[in-house]
Design brief:
The protein starts with a strand and ends in an 18-residue tail after the last strand. It is built from 8 helices and 16 strands. By secondary structure, it is an alpha/beta fold. Strand 4, helix 4 and strand 5 form a beta-alpha-beta unit. It binds zinc ion. The site of zinc ion (ZN) has 6 residues, from loops.
């Protein structure tokens, strides 16, 4: 173990965090995302008339049965490297929205990496719409038109196109990629919940979930358009693993899709709305949601959610942001460990009592580390140090109380993991024994 000791003189300036150099292979993969195919996939998904989770499964070219079979075959056809299967669950009738028993099928394409640890790119392929002219849902009516071109045909097309692009890239990835399109999202995140629990029961390690839901519309319902940005929602608290994935997405997008802006939103999702990243978050898995910058609510969950409300060029830019983040996630080593087996941060004041001493556990495949820090009342990393293959760093005179610290692992190819942050664990409540009083 080597310890890097840095002069406090280096800490005076607050240099902008430099982006890592682009990898031409990742740049090529990102550029290979096809706007034309995305548009074709969205129109094809709309063409099933409805993809309602309880819709018919025995009608040719219409309903969720035809849609999931097409998604499966299209992903199988798009790359021989993908292992594409249904992930089926027998769901009982329950609540207001599941008005009968149903066999729910997610469509899952696995691109095996050298390591079994997984990174997910997800969307939901099911759709729902209020009957034309109605202001309420009728959950018993599953075969009415529900085009779902943007919600979430756009995300489904994105996942299918990235499955093709990654499968055909010829790149050998360290981690395993899973491209999943879920059903039952509109009934309460049902497909993602069941898949997440099954994956956890099977012992899969999932490092990140990139959920893409409503990612293709440019024109907001309030008349404001924005084709230049995508929002990324992530649950707190401020240094949660999901927030590190969000910061990581912004960092990689700046390298590989610099003309597109990533707008980070520090909340788990939009008010009153849900998404398939949340069941993973609830299992302790880091995950974020991508959504368009401006929404048109009149074209969600209505018969007006048609393909003319999806912009293929905008959807392609959003897809390239997701592709860049996913590619670096599966090329980089896993995040280093920054806490001991009891969850205590490997951070202390060092022998002087007034320095910041950071330690971390080596990440498999890492050849270097990058330490970052920032004042504890700011959202973005402001300082950084490359520290070679050390697993310890002392920052003289830096208060561990006034700054937040983190460390990322860097692989031989220069790809960098998300940051693992040193978190001050909450203090348990004090339980004081007192003498009983009163008569
Ligand atoms: Zn949705």
């Amino acid at each position: 173990m080597r310890c890097a000791l840095l002069s406090s003189a280096l800490l005076v300036a607050a240099p902008a965090i430099a982006a890592e150099a682009p990898d031409p292979r990742v740049a090529g993969l990102v550029a290979s995302v096809s706007e034309e195919r995305l548009g074709h996939l969205v129109r094809s998904l709309e063409g099933f008339g409805t993809r309602h989770t309880l819709s018919a499964t025995d009608t040719t070219g219409r309903g969720i049965g035809a849609a999931r079979q097409w998604i499966l075959e299209e992903m199988r056809r798009s790359s021989a490297r993908l292992r594409v299967e249904f992930d089926a669950h027998a769901v009982l009738k329950q609540g207001e929205r599941l008005t009968r028993d149903v066999e729910l099928r997610n469509v899952v394409a696995v691109l095996p990496g050298r390591s079994p640890r997984r990174v997910y790119v997800t969307a939901h392929y099911d759709s729902v719409a209020r009957p034309a002219g109605a202001d309420r849902f009728d959950w018993s009516q599953a075969d009415l038109p529900a085009p779902g071109a943007n919600d979430d045909g756009s995300g489904t097309a994105l996942v299918m196109e990235l499955a093709r692009a990654f499968g055909e890239s010829g790149i050998d990835f360290d981690a395993t990629l899973v491209f999943a399109t879920f059903a039952g999202e509109e009934q309460g995140l049902v497909g993602a919940t069941l898949h997440g629990k099954r994956a956890a029961a099977e012992g899969h390690r999932i490092d990140a979930v990139l959920n893409c839901d409503i990612v293709g519309n440019v024109a907001g319902g309030d008349g404001v358009s924005d084709a230049s940005a995508v929002r990324v929602f992530s649950e707190g608290p401020e240094d949660s693993p999901s927030r590190q994935i969000a910061r990581f997405v912004a960092r990689q997008a700046a390298v590989y899709v610099p003309a597109h802006r990533v707008r980070l939103v520090a909340r788990h999702d939009r008010f009153g709305r849900g998404g398939d990243h949340t069941p993973f978050n609830q299992l302790g898995i880091a995950g974020v949601r991508f959504s368009e910058a401006r929404e048109n609510y009149a074209r969600q969950h209505t018969v007006a959610d048609t393909a003319d409300g999806v912009s293929p060029p905008y959807l392609a830019r959003n897809a390239r942001v997701v592709a860049a983040a996913a590619a670096v996630l599966v090329l980089a080593p896993p995040v280093p460990g920054v806490a001991d087996e009891r969850g205590r941060p490997l951070l202390d004041r060092g022998p002087t009592g007034y320095d910041a001493r950071l330690r971390w556990t080596a990440s498999p495949g890492a050849t270097a580390y990058r330490v970052v820090w920032r004042p504890a009342w700011t959202p973005d990393w402001e300082h950084e140090r490359a520290v070679g293959d050390a697993t310890e760093l002392v920052l003289p005179g830096v208060s561990i109380d006034d700054f937040v610290f983190g460390v990322a692992a860097v692989g031989a190819g220069g790809h960098e993991s998300p940051v693992a942050a040193y978190v001050n664990p909450p203090r348990p409540p004090v339980d004081v024994l007192t003498k009983p009083t009163g008569p």
